From TrEMBL:
Coiled-coil ranges from the UniProt annotation: none
Signal peptide: none
Lipid metabolism found in the keyword field: no
Transmembrane segments: 6-25, 37-56, 76-97, 104-123, 129-147, 159-180, 192-210, 230-254, 260-281, 302-319
Domain EamA: 5-146, 163-283
Keywords: Membrane, Transmembrane, Transmembrane helix
A Pfam family this chain is assigned to: EamA
Keyword Zinc attributed: no
Annotated Gene Ontology cellular component terms: membrane
InterPro entries: EamA_dom, EmrE-like
Identification of the protein by name: Uncharacterized membrane protein
Length: 320
């Protein structure tokens, strides 16, 4: 029988893949400023959990904020993780704007390494050798997908910008994920998400003045047409933000019932899902998403995706 945490982590991977594809379509056709993407994507899911916390658990939240010193310090810590969340998403959207979604998202599997180290150091998590082998397969497969084959040469590279931005985003998300795992010992799921969202919303307000305009010109020189296009892009980002609210909930549920290292590794299945989705969009609607899929790339990404699947299966069976 599939463990509950595994099912939650798998749902999280599905939603993360949908969010990445939505954001890439918007950044490639309309809004290319990472801060603007972060604002419109993060506000919806922060607002969802703030509203849910106030409506469903007002008494608990009031007690933790006023009467009990321990939850107060934990609440402030959670708000700090909310700032980390916004920073992570800002770096994430920077990577999406500057590169191919089918290469950047896989490189984010480096998060697994950070989480494994943090889980060991802070939480004392340790697992059978097979689990670590599975994690390594997931990471290797994700990096192999990011390997760019040089035109007319057998040489290839993973661009420094891809790796650098992915490392920064992965580190931020690893800190956030491990922090959420720690906070589940102090709070319930909704409380954790409430306080993280409060900190996240405050940090959104802080970065809002620094957003820039888009490089995409108005279509046909008509402001009303551009406004309609902008509205569509913002609507997609809001949908992505609401999906993120669902993903954050399912991921916290996975953390409550399973180890942070394994739950994070399973969410890396979004690498395979993003590859399939970007391939389909590139072939069916190239005006929305156009990425390179030559024969070498197809074989490369197919092989890497298989490695990721094998790694996730190894994690699943070795941990049981």
């Amino acid at each position: 029988m599939i463990p509950t945490w595994f099912a939650y982590a798998l749902v999280t991977a599905l939603v993360y893949a949908a969010i990445a594809l939505l954001a890439k379509v918007v950044s490639g056709t309309e809004i290319d400023d990472p801060i603007t993407l972060t604002i419109y994507s993060c506000i919806p899911f922060y607002a969802v959990y703030i509203a849910a916390g106030l409506l469903l658990e007002p008494t608990t939240l009031s007690a933790s904020a006023v009467t009990d010193p321990t939850p107060l310090s934990a609440a402030l810590t959670a708000m700090g993780f909310g700032v980390v969340s916004t920073a992570g998403y800002g770096i994430y959207y920077w990577g999406l704007v500057s590169g191919d979604v089918s290469r950047f998202v896989p490189a984010l599997a480096l998060e697994t390494i950070f989480v494994l180290v943090l889980g060991f150091v802070l939480l004392g998590e340790s697992f059978p050798t097979g689990v670590y082998a599975g994690v390594l397969l997931v990471v290797f497969g994700a990096l192999f997908i990011s390997y760019e084959h040089g035109s007319g040469s057998i040489r290839g590279t993973v661009g420094p910008s891809t790796i650098g931005v992915a490392l920064a985003a992965a580190a931020a998300f690893a800190v956030l994920n491990t922090g959420m795992k720690v906070l589940t010992t102090e709070f319930g799921t909704l409380e954790v998400l409430f306080w993280i969202s409060v900190g996240g919303l405050v940090s959104i307000a802080a970065i809002a003045p620094f957003r820039e305009g888009s490089r995409f010109p108005p279509t046909g020189g008509r402001d009303d047409v551009f406004a309609r296009r902008l509205s569509k892009g913002i609507s997609l980002l809001i949908v992505g933000g609401l999906l993120n609210a669902l993903a954050l909930l399912t991921f916290v549920q996975a953390l409550e019932t399973g180890p942070v290292s394994l739950a994070t590794a399973i969410t890396k299945l979004d690498v395979l899902l993003v590859f399939v989705g970007s391939l389909a969009l590139s072939k069916l609607t190239p005006e929305l998403l156009a990425e390179q899929f030559d024969p070498f790339t197809l074989v490369q990404k197919g092989t890497a995706s298989l490695l990721i699947l094998v790694g996730c299966a190894l994690i699943q069976f070795a941990a049981t």
